[in-house]
Write a structure and sequence with these properties.
A two-stranded antiparallel ribbon has the order 1-2. The longest helix is centred in the C-terminal third of the chain and has 17 residues. With 281 residues, it is mainly alpha-helical. It is globular. The protein contains 8 helices and 2 strands, in the order H-H-H-H-H-H-E-E-H-H. Helix 2 packs across helix 3 and helix 3 packs across helix 4. The two termini are 17 Å apart.
Length: 281
C-alpha cells in the first residue's frame, strides 16, 4: 500500500489560502511532444476574453484546483467545433473530487492538487453548477446519484502532461489548445504586479501554491533564455540532460525514464517484467 501523507492546514496569505500542491510525476501520463504546428509569436489575452468564459471567484477557500480546472472546461466547451455550449460546470464537484483523489489522507482539509482534480474529472466527469452549487459557507461534499448521472455528460477527453521546463513545448501546446491547466509556487510578488502585468520576484519567501489556467503569452516570451556566457549555457544544458534522462518518462520506452530503462536492460532492476504504459491517471 502506498504511503499517504496527512495534509496540513495553512493560514491565509493576503486573504487567500495558497495550498495547491505542485503537480507530481506519474509514469502513466502521456507526455506532450511539440509537432510541426504553426505557432504565433504571441497570443493575445483579448482572444481569450472574446470567448466569454465566466470569471470565477473562489473567495477565501483554498479551492483553486476546482476553480482553475472549471475555467479550462468552460473554455473547451465554448470553443469545441461540434456542439459548442455555454454550460457552467460545478467548481464544487471538481474541488471535492480533487480532495478525494489527491495525495493526502481523508478529505477534512482545505486545498488540494491539480493531479487530484484531473483524477476526479477522469473518474467521474463533472456535473453542472446548478446540480452542485458552490457555497463556501455551506460546503456540500456528497456525490449523489443525480450529480453522478449528470457528470457523465461532461467527461474528460485526451490530455497530456506538458514539460514546464521546455518553453517550446509550452508555446506549442498553448498555440494548439489555447489553454493550459497549471500550478505554481506563490510569493508576495503575485499581489504586487507591475504596470505591464509582470509578477516581480526578488527572492521573496514562497508562501504556498496556486492552480490556474494559462491563456495567453507575450511576443517576447521566447526571450526568457538570454544567456550571459558559455558557462550558463552549459549549466542549463546539463540541467536539461538530467531532467531528460532521469525525470521524464518516454512513451517509446514504455513510459519510463531512459535511466530506468537502462537499469532494467542491464539487469540492475529485479522482477521488472513489464513497464507501465497506461495513459490513464
Amino acid at each position: 500500500m502506498a504511503d499517504v501523507t496527512q495534509k496540513q492546514k495553512m493560514a491565509p496569505f493576503q486573504g487567500r489560502v495558497l495550498n495547491a500542491r505542485p503537480d507530481t510525476i506519474d509514469f502513466r501520463d502521456k507526455i506532450y511532444t511539440a509537432t510541426l504546428f504553426e505557432v504565433p509569436t504571441k497570443i493575445e489575452l483579448a482572444d481569450y476574453k472574446q470567448v466569454g468564459v465566466p470569471v470565477l471567484d473562489q473567495g477565501q477557500e483554498g479551492a483553486c484546483t476546482g476553480f482553475g480546472l472549471a475555467t479550462v472546461i468552460h473554455y473547451l466547451l465554448r470553443t469545441r467545433k461540434v456542439i459548442p455550449c455555454t454550460d457552467i460546470v460545478s467548481s464544487r464537484m471538481l474541488y471535492e473530487m480533487a480532495k478525494k483523489y489527491d495525495e493526502w489522507e481523508g478529505e477534512d482539509y482545505i486545498g488540494s492538487s491539480a493531479r487530484g482534480a484531473m483524477k476526479g474529472w477522469h473518474k467521474h466527469g463533472v456535473c453542472l453548477a446548478e446540480k452542485w452549487i458552490y457555497d463556501s459557507a455551506k460546503p456540500d461534499k456528497n456525490l449523489t446519484a443525480e450529480r453522478a448521472e449528470n457528470a457523465a455528460g461532461y467527461p474528460i477527453g485526451s490530455y497530456y502532461r506538458v514539460n514546464h521546463k521546455d518553453l517550446v513545448e509550452m508555446h506549442t501546446a498553448l498555440a494548439e489548445v489555447k489553454i493550459l491547466y497549471a500550478t505554481a509556487r506563490v510569493h508576495d510578488g503575485w499581489f504586487h504586479l507591475t504596470p505591464n502585468g509582470e509578477i516581480p520576484y526578488n527572492g521573496q519567501q514562497i508562501e504556498g501554491g496556486h492552480a490556474f489556467a494559462i491563456v495567453a503569452f507575450r511576443e517576447n516570451i521566447l526571450d526568457a533564455y538570454l544567456f550571459k556566457d558559455i558557462n550558463q549555457v552549459q549549466s542549463l544544458a546539463d540541467e536539461w540532460m538530467q531532467d531528460y534522462n532521469y525525470n521524464r518518462p518516454h512513451e517509446a520506452l514504455g513510459g519510463v525514464t531512459p535511466a530506468y530503462f537502462k537499469r532494467v536492460k542491464c539487469g540492475e532492476v529485479e522482477n521488472a517484467t513489464a513497464f507501465p504504459t497506461s495513459p490513464h491517471l
